[in-house]
Amino acid sequence: MTVRHYLGVADLSRDETLEMLDRACKLKAKWLKRGRPSKKLRGATLAGIYEKPSLRTRTTFEAGMTQLGGHAVYLGPADIQLGQREPAGDVARNLSRWVQIITARVFAHGTVVDLSCASSVPVINALSDREHPCQALADFMTLVEHFGDLKGRKIAFIGDGNNVAHSLLLMGGLLGTSIAVAGPEGYAPDPAIVEQSRALIGCNRAQITVTTDAAEAAAGADVVYTDVWASMGQESEQEARAAIFEPYKVTEGLLAATGKPETIFMHCLPAHRGDEVAAAVLDGPRSVVFEQAENRLHAQKALILFLLGK
Ligand code: CP
Ligand code: NVA
């Protein structure tokens, strides 16, 4: 049997992704109604490899395994010293003998690829420098809950064209949601990802655009989304980036530039009030950031079950 991995949004087809979102909504409803763990993954273990910090990703994968009747093991930087104590491939070859699924949060995307190449169990990208696909799954689940339908919707991503923006671009292309990215020159998304996103569009009518003009990207958007200006590993650039990204702060004025009173605000979190987003927006009535965080749990349960063929 071929092992399926989820290293990026494009690893699942459109139908599989839609099926996943549907299942995630059902798992959430069931959990909120009954709050009892299932026995689906009894005896199964997830190994969570982390080269970087995490609140949401780690907790939701671990709680998700508990809710499915399984167990999770945390492997932090000090525990396994990935790539230093032994190569990623050997780590995966060991883990494959003991656990049923691996998640990995890594600096270089190549590390999660190396893990998957050597693994005989599914590997999930829990964030790399290229993508954050689990975040996009939860975000699109949140959009389905909020709007009912994804077709014809538009997300304006304002800020750094990094991992989160990449996964949103790819999922937008896959599911037919337009994405407009606006950020400073030199911080645009990887052109190869933009091209891949456009190639995924197929016969849906999504539009994928990249600009340096935040108001232009925001025009007509149903969602304004942002991410931190300095990602994990870029802490030394924080001050320089703060100056460069200042015109891309999401304010109430930028939300008004969508021209739609029903526009919602999204952020993957953690957020920095007063930097990439004004406190009034993050804590305001249009913000769905904690729904996004909540949905990480259920989207990832659906993903784990899919990859394990359950
Ligand atoms: N959004 C997200 O991935 O959060 P953590 O970094 O806390 O896992
Ligand atoms: N772009 C951010 C996302 C955090 C969830 C980072 O990589 O740190």
Q: Would you kindly provide a written description of the structure presented here, covering whatever features stand out?
A:
With 310 residues, the protein is of the alpha/beta class. Helix content is 44%, strand content 13%. The strands form two sheets. It has a five-stranded parallel β-sheet with strand order 7-6-5-8-9. It has a four-stranded parallel β-sheet with strand order 2-1-3-4, with helices on both faces. Helix 8 links the parallel strand 6 and strand 7 (208-211). Helix 6 (133-147) packs across helix 7. The model has no long low-confidence stretch (mean pLDDT 97). The site of norvaline has 9 residues, from helix 7.
What are the salient characteristics of this protein?
44% helix, five-stranded parallel β-sheet, binds norvaline, 310 residues, alpha/beta, binds phosphoric acid mono(formamide)ester
